[in-house]
Design brief:
0% strand, mainly alpha, globular
Length: 80
């Protein structure tokens, strides 16, 4: 159950990242990369608070990022 909660919280974080990236579409790439690492660290910290395992948190964070990215690009492919 904790893994499910972490995945849902991280999907919310990745959605927030996507929204903020959309708002800053004219920013330079370096700022977007820094922002990505800030959101990744935030997702990692929240996941670590719930699971209390660094290895499991890193795996869940990476997995949620991969799943969110694949869903995001699949939806963009169908919409455009």
């Amino acid at each position: 159950m904790r893994v499910y909660i972490v995945m849902m919280l991280q999907f919310i974080i990745w959605s927030g990242y996507t929204f903020i990236e959309w708002l800053s579409k004219h920013d330079q790439l370096i700022y977007k990369v820094i922002m990505f690492f800030v959101f990744f660290y935030l997702a990692y910290l929240i996941g670590n608070q719930v699971t209390r395992s660094a290895r499991k948190t890193l795996f869940i964070t990476t997995l949620s990022l991969i799943i969110y990215t694949s869903i995001h690009y699949t939806m963009a492919l169908f919409i455009h």
